[in-house]
């Protein structure tokens, strides 16, 4: 008997499984590290010129897929599912992406909770500048402008235009740069950008020195530069409200092997360093962007009356209650207890009636207890925890608070005993005894 041929649908499914990129680790709420990365390049030669950075990602378990930015097969989704967890854009000069990819698709990718590293140089196209602007970074409007520093520049640039600069103006954050401080300065050649100070989602991770400015090195200055000093952001970070993270660098060369291995600096204060801090910077910041650090989750939220274990449907005024929550931080491989002394709970109705700092057992559990205010209405348990470099923890749950029932009030209030005594004393003092009429008869 002849073997039955597999149906077309089954055959198509098998082919799709074979050609689809299957991750070793799936990206999810329980595993927030982005493992599947699409790397878009202007030139495939960047794979070798920036190999130290790429190899650091591969050594930590990331799956990198390299493609030219104008590849006709580019796509970030298939059948409504994301093919990648993160995107690295090292294609500053591309004016139009290939395939179905465009500026809106990149932004939708970030809006879906995925991460992005974008590095540019002086050849940055309007397409790339537009993506950066939508992520909160505004590059210098002059397309020929680069960051210049006549004081803090690399020794190899002594006879040039001082566009290969050195900076050590880092934001102070161990969660972003790691526990080991970056002591050596960063080599940077590229364009500067500004960040709107009112935008709380974007921060300047590395800024230029006070002597730097943004201008065209081949043109004579006819007016003050629009960007000067520490207002120039060299590397900026953005963390969206959906916890997607974006790195924007005005220098593609900063990630290159040349800047990573560069020796010696002109400034006396830099002479003691034999190697730049570029490798440490790009490695540590990439860990943050791809959620190897600073990703928090809250589980097991509980509240109940003191002495009970079940969660009630409502509380009564003046009840004693307990609240607890467990908070963990993703280490890149597993969830570890998050330890802090500034996690606060609000018992909220229009404004906080109770604000308590929760204590921790240093194993992830945070708890506190308090008395329900003598105000009835609909309250909320709220935990709003936002710290630099960490994903936010936002918890809220409504609970009604009722007054005493008529039969729950105390019959005799101890504080009112003086009034009780005064009342009874008054009654006894004005009450006359019942005397018979015959007691008043006078015998004649």
UniProtKB/TrEMBL annotation:
**Pfam families in the cross-refs:** OST48_MD, OST48_N
In what pathway does it function? Protein modification; protein glycosylation
Q: Tell me where on the tree of life, at the top rank, the source sits.
A: Eukaryota
**OST48 middle domain residues:** 303-430
GO terms under biological process: protein N-linked glycosylation via asparagine
Q: Where is the OST48 N-terminal domain?
A: 36-289
Leader sequence residues: 1-24
Q: What would you give as a GO molecular function for this chain, any one? A: transferase activity
List where in the cell it is found: Endoplasmic reticulum membrane; Membrane
Q: How does it sit in the membrane?
A: Single-pass type I membrane protein
- Whether Plastid counts among this entry's keywords is no
GO cellular component terms listed in the entry, alphabetical order: oligosaccharyltransferase complex
Q: Which UniProt keywords apply?
A: Endoplasmic reticulum, Membrane, Signal, Transferase, Transmembrane, Transmembrane helix
How it assembles, according to the record, is:
Component of the oligosaccharyltransferase (OST) complex.
Which function does this protein serve?
Answer: Subunit of the oligosaccharyl transferase (OST) complex that catalyzes the initial transfer of a defined glycan (Glc(3)Man(9)GlcNAc(2) in eukaryotes) from the lipid carrier dolichol-pyrophosphate to an asparagine residue within an Asn-X-Ser/Thr consensus motif in nascent polypeptide chains, the first step in protein N-glycosylation. N-glycosylation occurs cotranslationally and the complex associates with the Sec61 complex at the channel-forming translocon complex that mediates protein translocation across the endoplasmic reticulum (ER).
Q: What family name appears in the similarity comment?
A: Belongs to the DDOST 48 kDa subunit family.
- Protein name, please? Dolichyl-diphosphooligosaccharide--protein glycosyltransferase 48 kDa subunit
């Amino acid at each position: 008997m002849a073997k039955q041929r597999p149906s077309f649908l089954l055959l198509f499914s098998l082919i799709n499984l074979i050609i689809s990129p299957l991750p070793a680790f799936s990206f999810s709420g329980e595993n927030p590290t982005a493992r599947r990365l699409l790397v878009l390049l202007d030139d495939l030669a960047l794979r070798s010129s920036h190999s130290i950075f790429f190899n650091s990602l591969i050594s930590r378990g990331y799956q990198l897929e390299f493609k030219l930015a104008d590849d006709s097969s580019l796509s970030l989704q298939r059948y409504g599912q994301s093919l990648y967890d993160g995107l690295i854009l090292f294609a500053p000069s591309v004016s139009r992406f290939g395939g179905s990819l465009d500026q809106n698709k990149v932004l939708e990718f970030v809006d879906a909770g995925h991460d992005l590293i974008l590095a540019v140089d002086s050849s940055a196209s309007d397409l790339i500048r537009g993506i950066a602007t939508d992520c909160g970074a505004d590059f210098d409007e002059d397309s020929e402008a680069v960051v210049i520093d006549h004081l803090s520049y690399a020794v190899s640039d002594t006879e040039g235009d001082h566009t290969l600069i050195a900076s050590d103006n880092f934001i102070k954050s161990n969660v972003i740069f790691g526990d080991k401080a970056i002591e050596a300065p960063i080599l940077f050649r590229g364009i500067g950008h500004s960040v709107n100070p009112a935008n709380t989602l974007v921060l300047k991770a590395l800024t230029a020195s006070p002597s730097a400015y943004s201008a065209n090195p081949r043109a004579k200055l006819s007016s003050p530069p629009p960007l000067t000093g520490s207002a120039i952001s060299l590397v900026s970070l953005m963390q969206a409200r959906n916890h997607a993270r974006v790195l924007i660098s005005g220098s593609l060369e900063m990630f290159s092997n040349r800047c990573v291995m560069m020796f010696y600096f002109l400034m006396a204060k830099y002479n003691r360093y034999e190697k730049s801090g570029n490798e440490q910077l790009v490695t540590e910041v990439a860990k943050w962007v791809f959620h190897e650090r600073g990703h928090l989750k809250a589980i097991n939220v509980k509240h109940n009356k003191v002495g009970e274990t079940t969660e009630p449907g409502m509380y009564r005024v003046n009840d004693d209650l307990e609240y607890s929550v467990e908070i963990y931080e993703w280490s890149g491989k597993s969830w570890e207890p998050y330890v802090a002394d500034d996690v606060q709970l609000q018992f909220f109705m229009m404004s906080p009636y109770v604000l308590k700092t929760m204590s921790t057992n240093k194993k992830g559990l945070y708890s506190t207890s308090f008395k329900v205010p003598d105000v009835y209405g609909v309250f909320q348990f709220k935990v709003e925890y936002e710290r630099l470099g960490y994903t936010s923890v936002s918890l809220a749950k409504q609970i009604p608070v009722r007054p005493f029932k008529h039969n729950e009030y105390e019959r005799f209030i101890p504080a009112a005993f003086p009034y009780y005594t005064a009342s009874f004393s008054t009654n006894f003092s004005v009450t006359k005894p019942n005397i018979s009429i015959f007691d008043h008869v006078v015998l004649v």
